[in-house]
Amino acid sequence: MDQVTLRWFSRDLNSRGMLVANALSDSVSDALMAGHTDKLQPLFERALQDERLFAIGLCSPRGELLLHTEAFPTLSCDAAAALARQAEPRLNLAGGPVHVGVHNVMGTPPPPPTPEVPDGFVGPPAPVPAAAPVAAAPQQPVLAGRLVLLHDMSFIERRSEDTRNYLVGLIAGLGLVIAVITVVVAQLSWRGWVNGARALMRGEVLFSPLPSGPSSAPAGEALAPELIPLANELRNRMRDLEDEFRRSQGLHTEWNAERLRALLNTHISGDQVIVVSNREPYIHERTADGVIVKRPASGLVTAVEPVMRACSGTWVAHGSGSADRDVVDAHDRLPVPPGQDDYWLRRIWLTAEEEQGYYYGFANEGMWPLCHVAHVRPVFRESDWEAYKAVNQRFADAVVAEARSEDPLVLVQDYHFALLPAMVREKLPQATILTFWHIPWPNPESFGICPWRKEILDGMLGSTILGFHTRYHCKNFIETVDRYLEARIEHEHSTIAFREKETLVESYPISIEWPQEEAMRNWPSVEACRQRVTERLGLPQDLCLAVGVDRFDYTKGILERLNAVERLLEKWPQWIGRFVFVQVAAPTRSALEEYRSFQERIERVTARINERFSRPGYQPVHLLAAHHEPDAVNELFRAADMCVVTSLHDGMNLVSKEFVAARDDLQGVLILSRFAGAARELAEALIVNPYHVEETADALHRAASMPAAEQRERMASLRSTVRESNVFRWAGRMLLDAGRWRLRARIEARVRRHQAP
Ligand code: ADQ
């Protein structure tokens, strides 16, 4: 029993004792005054029926123990009084402690007896002393005795024990309830934390702005409020690290127009840059409204145009527009882009026969299917070959005519000009000729079917540097040279020595120009794009929109894509009415039977699918066989839920990169053929084998059902790849190699001059 409890109970017992003493005091005082204390014994015994009263003793005012109950210990009245005065009036007995209380009992002594008057005495009344009261005054109470009350204290221990047990039980119960509540609350907030932490780990809230409201966060993945400061902190830290990394890398990571220009000024300073391609970057067409300027749907143009704007050279290309001749000067030149005049476009005019033989015939019926191995047989006609040679020579002559020095930097584009490098080299031996092959290079067996394989390889090896999109294509080319030419190959340096000249064979994955911040700010929002596209095509708003953007070319896998859409609707009928595929296809090479029949076949398959799955107000496939301006293509990319690229074979494929660049909202899924060069860089796309209809249909289903968070994660990674590996990097790496090569060539020439007798 602790001191506090004891003191508390002592006070309680004192008050109880007073009550008992008060109750007994009248009887006790009467008995004492009357001197009949023996009558008190039964009274005391009755009082002891209160279980807490242990014994009662009665003391005289002089301290003699007059009376006591049976259990009263050997305790004198003085000792009891001394104990009772203590702060803890306790007396330890064999049976346990007792509380000692001593209470005064006051009594009024009986009045003194009045003098007796004899019977019959009549006389005058006795004189009353002046001081004596008239009537008998009441007696003052005097101490009649003291009650000694001994209270059993064992009940305090019992009570204390009970209280302790009760308290322990209460605390245990409370603890249990609190624990249960804590577990429930913790469970709930832990889930929030875990989801938030997961989102953090996935980098969602680090790469994208924090969700502004519940609706903007993917279901169940809102960041717990307590994680927001952590996310901010992490994001800032990541930004710092990124900046630090960039700084530590200096200029070597970020490629942009300025850096390319700086490189041209340092490594190729004062050197003239001439680009040669079949397709011109701007086509002037005569229409009913006058002359209009069009940009062709061409990956090559998309890639090379920003380079030319950066280096202000001359671009030699076939003038194919109906109004092209009307806008050039006396030297068949005009400054472009219209209104900006960054570089010169030199147009070459071809007759219909020349175009037929060189372009449609040898290039597109021969070389294109030969290099793509897309199960369309190449056609090799002698007349086409002759035209090809003649046109290559004409372009080579134009390059030589445009050259202002004996060593210009000539950038030859694509399979239309396989012979041109050697032709230019013949006239300008000091020129640095950089040939980029935009399409794949097949294995030696496939290439071997070309009747003029040696001439083609010979012509290409006139290049100083020969670029392909991938190492795989480089390897195929080197093996092909090894098979068909007598050349010295240095695999370690990836060079081929042929006819006393060396050619470096290197991979330069092409890309797009990453959109400028300002341009991106001016883009209509994704929601606005969606609204415009759905309104224009009469589509419901809440649908899954897949898009394909290509030239109408059999290598692009448009047929395989349509088959996959059909299979999707068969296999997952829940998508009928909710999945729409929009294929934008720019007619191309329509003069060729293969292309015309391909387009007709696509139209037939589209009609078949629409017949099978159309419902009132719903048509699953929309085929837009038309050229679209870049803004319209961008709008479509931004409106879509996925972009489908299923090329059967593609050098790189820029559509996939343009789609990624368009999605600054980090949404949208890219489905990409493993046979496109881009698949080597864009690993976070859903990579498919387009020949496998089932696999492609499954990918469509997966893309259509992909959670927003996964889309964000994949898209963020894709975007950082495309942003870094942009077209300036492609051009910059080639030009750096060219610059090194030129430096080496100049040093060698100087050494030779010194050595000359
Ligand atoms: P292409 O075969 O033309 O290019 P791709 O790389 O996809 O293929 O580029 C096509 C370009 O044309 C893109 O910029 C795209 O936006 C545009 N385009 C496509 N369809 C269009 C349409 N209907 N309307 C408007 N624009 C459209 C070749 C090789 C590729 C290689 C490029 C660059 O075949 O493998 O990536 O050169 O080297």
List keywords for this structure.
47% helix; binds adenosine-5'-diphosphate-glucose; 10-stranded mixed β-sheet; alpha/beta; 24 helices
Task: State the share of residues found in helices, binned by percent.
Answer: 40-55%
Mean pLDDT: 87
Bound molecules: adenosine-5'-diphosphate-glucose
Note the beta-strand portion. 15-25%
Multimeric status of the protein: single chain
- Identify low-pLDDT runs: 116-135, 207-221
What structural category do the secondary elements indicate?
Answer: alpha/beta
CA-based gyration radius: 54 Å
The rounded distance between the terminal residues' Cα atoms is 122 Å
Number of strands: 23
| Major sheet details | 10 strands, mixed
Number of helices: 24
So what's the overall shape? rod-shaped
Strand order in space, largest sheet: 10-11-9-6-12-13-14-17-16-15
